[in-house]
Amino acid sequence: MRARQLEVFIAVMRAGTVTAAARMLNISQPALSQILLHAEDELGFTLFERVKGRLRPTPEALEIFPDAERLSAGLEGLRRKTTDLRLGRAGLVRVAASPPPAMAILPRAFTKFRAQHPNIMLRAHSAPIAAIVDMLRAGDASLGVAMDDRLPPDIEAEVIGSVGFACLLPAGHALQKKAELTLADLVGEELISYRGNTRPADELAHAARAQGVALSPSLEIDVSISAVGFVQAGLGIGLVDALLPWPQFAGLAVRPLTAGPEFPIALLTSRTRPLSRADEMMRDEIRSACSIVLDEHRAKA
């Protein structure tokens, strides 16, 4: 399957119709249909069946789709790299981070780095940890920052700090009278917190069992920043990482969770890809920024 055929196949799989896929790729419907037919001819099997105006993937299409997506991501990464080289961006540093460190640590690290190396281009990606790992493997990011150190063997995870949890209270909540909260204080409250099978959810569940407390979120989230709107709407108390600068958000009160668990802040690199000198300098700045941010958190606690 050629690159253009791969692109069309993925677009149709995602869009479900020729019209929507053609719009995604900014080509005509006849052109897209022709590329799809040529792909099927070369492969020797049908990729889609027409059902009530939509294209339904065949079992063969479903079988190859995950591999096609991975190959497409690799090709896109190659395009970006060749573009960077063509435009003279040899001094490019790419960092992928989950939202909390992306908001709390990277701005400080990037500011310090830019002051010392103004001619090096910086690129930041905010992504969940699974996507960060994929980007490190593909070379789309040289460095990653995540709040988990349980990574695959090909990813190096250097723990550069740890952070606890914070409670986000809706305006006027009765628990605002307390300067700090415990897990026991949250029993019976509507909680907004992480979905199961994530590092923070696992740490909270372990701590709750150890303290003999039963906690169960009534609203599950993937990333902590998404709790803000729900708390402001009065849907419950947010039980989230303490790394983000929560006091900057209006309509909620922030209280630290005491005697609660902590989870790591990890600096991630690929074991199979060497770092450039610029990457190494950025790695140093991220370590320093993390230390400063955590010191500031402890001073305010």
Automatic annotation (TrEMBL):
Belongs to the LysR transcriptional regulatory family. The lineage of its organism: Bacteria, Pseudomonadati, Pseudomonadota, Alphaproteobacteria, Hyphomicrobiales. It comes from Mesorhizobium montanum. InterPro entries: LysR_HTH_N (IPR000847), LysR_subst-bd (IPR005119), WH-like_DNA-bd_sf (IPR036388), WH_DNA-bd_sf (IPR036390). The keyword Repeat does not apply. Keywords: DNA-binding, Transcription, Transcription regulation. It holds the Pfam family HTH_1. This is LysR family transcriptional regulator. Residues 1-58 form the HTH lysR-type domain.
